[in-house]
Amino acid sequence: MVKPSLYDTICAIATPPGEGGIAVIRISGQDSFNVINKIFFRNNKRIDSHSISSDDANKIIYGFIFDNEILIDEVLISVFKSPNSFTGEDIIEISCHGGFFIANKIITLLNKLNIRIAEPGEFSKRAFLNGKIDLSQAEAIADLITSKTDASHNASLAQLEGSLSQYVKSVREDIIKITSLVELELDFAEEDVEFVNKNEVKQKISTVISELIRIINSYIKGKIIKNGVNLVIAGKPNSGKSSLFNLFLNSDRAIVSNVAGTTRDFIEENLLINGVLFKLTDTAGIRLSDDQIETEGIKRSLERIKNADLVLYLMDSSAPDKDLMDSLNYFENYLDKNKTIPVFSKSDLKKNNSSIEINSYKNNYLKISINDNKSIEKLKSEMINKLNLSSISSQSGELIITNLRHKLCLENTVKELESAIHSIENNMSGEYISLDLRNALNKLAEITGEFTNDDILNSIFLNFCIGK
Predict the structure, then answer these.
(1) Adjacent-strand bridge partners of 71
(2) Where does 52-131 have alpha helices with state H?
(3) Cα–Cα distance, 239 to 177 (Å, whole number)
(4) pLDDT digits (tens, 9 = 90+) for 185-239
(5) How far apart are CA 317 and CA 335, in angstroms?
(6) Which DSSP helix (H) or strand (E) runs through 359?
């Protein structure tokens, strides 16, 4: 099997599969123009060929695609000339009628003319390798396409436009200046000349570390912007979980019944509140059960609670005091207070079998009723505030990292800088300090791809779809 080469001319369908008005087929590489000239004609009689050349760059041309004497489709072709294209190579984009059949016939025709199918993400990979975008911008393309909210769209667009790239460049310049001071002294080591105070170098490095940690901490918000909030509704059976779930979604998605244990497994849906995507999960009621299926559902519920970003823990206000106190004790002893909102549900119902006073608890916890819109809106506000998401949809220009790889690169950069401080504190020679600083530069450069390896590149672009 011949190994794919970056010198090959490649093609792929760039639009989603299925029926639609048009499908777009992208061709990139040095043979793009030669191949299109063999199959593209200006009329449907195949007698008026049109030789695509550099003069046609940045134009859209109407015509027809033929396979020898057989007409395939009426199309528009868009022409982009190297280096002024997305990949930096000659590109042809064929807009044909939508549907799998026609687009696949054109792809098959291109394959017969030695244009191979692109690998996942190969168009973006070529754009990176040809210097059209850096690695963080390539990743932003994938994030932009999959964005589901204004916040994720804005974050991806800012990264595509170079916000993270500029930040990395700025920090690199700061580290390079510090490295230059250290290495300048090394050049005059034999003359025993001290150009810079080691404590001053240490302070400069500490300042860079503090700035990097600030950006690293933005990943908590960035992960939510990109992936949404994993929100779990939990509580005892019949605490109102499914009713609240349905109310949030404005549909009868979950079964609501007075019979305890009707939810045997978790149910998931997406919910948008104030520009924040919540991945909403309704779970089986937490209790001891002899029912094997329900027990398995409860086990899954506990696992979901453990992995949630936010938990709404519902307690039935109308339940007997013993049951209610059991729920309160469960919250106090077993749930993470930092990510859990305790909620008294059914606050509009008359309490049953009241024997002890619990109103003091109610003053500290949210009280809701699915029949009281104000209480539900208050709950939604608390969901936003609990995770400090009130400004998540703003376009304040704040740099927020949304990619785990970027976070790890920044953390590794900090480790190398801390190693440089350790070298200074242990009175080690400038060679060791310089090595630590250069390692930090390399770790930072992995974000934009200035310093990387083929394994990292292949791993990143493998997750892209073909045609991207």
Answers:
(1) 66
(2) 100-112, 122-129
(3) 61
(4) 665 555 555 566 788 889 999 999 999 999 999 998 888 888 889 998 888 888 8
(5) 19
(6) helix 359-362
Q: Model-level pTM greater than 0.85? A: no
Of 17-26, 87-96, 320-329, 339-348, minimum mean pLDDT range:
320-329
CA distance 81 to 467: 18
Helix axes 198-217, 404-425, angle to 10 degrees: 160
- CA 155, CA 163: separation in Å to the nearest integer? 9
3-state class (DSSP) for residue 5: coil
Q: How far is CA 163 from CA 275, 276, 452, in A?
A: 22, 22, 20
How would you list the strands of the sheet with 340-345, edge to edge? 267-273, 276-282, 229-235, 310-316, 340-345, 366-367
d(CA 58, CA 56): 6
Report the distance separating Cα 135 and Cα 446, nearest Å.
8
Handedness of CA 140, 144, 147, 150 (dihedral sign): positive
Quick check: 456 pLDDT over 80?
Answer: no
Token digits of residue 389? 């998401």
In this structure, which amino acid lies at residue 54? S
Strands 59-67 and 40-41: antiparallel
Do strands 22-28 and 10-13 pair parallel, antiparallel, or not at all (unpaired)? Answer: antiparallel
Q: Give 379-382 contacts, CB < 8 A, sequence gap 24+.
A: 379/312, 379/341, 379/343, 380/273, 380/274, 382/341
Write down how long the chain is. 468
At residue 256, the pLDDT reads 43
Instruction: Please tell me the distance from the alpha carbon of residue 90 to that of residue 152, in angstroms, as a whole number.
Output: 32
Average predicted confidence (pLDDT) for the chain: 83
Joined together, the tokens standing for residue 390 give 């009130």
What per-residue confidence (pLDDT) applies to 251?
Answer: 63
**What domains does the chain contain, in order, with CATH numbers?**
10-118 (3.30.1360.120), 138-218+401-451 (1.20.120.430), 225-386 (3.40.50.300)
Answer yes or no: are the C-beta atoms of 13 and 103 closer than 8 Å. Answer: yes
What's the pLDDT at 255? 42
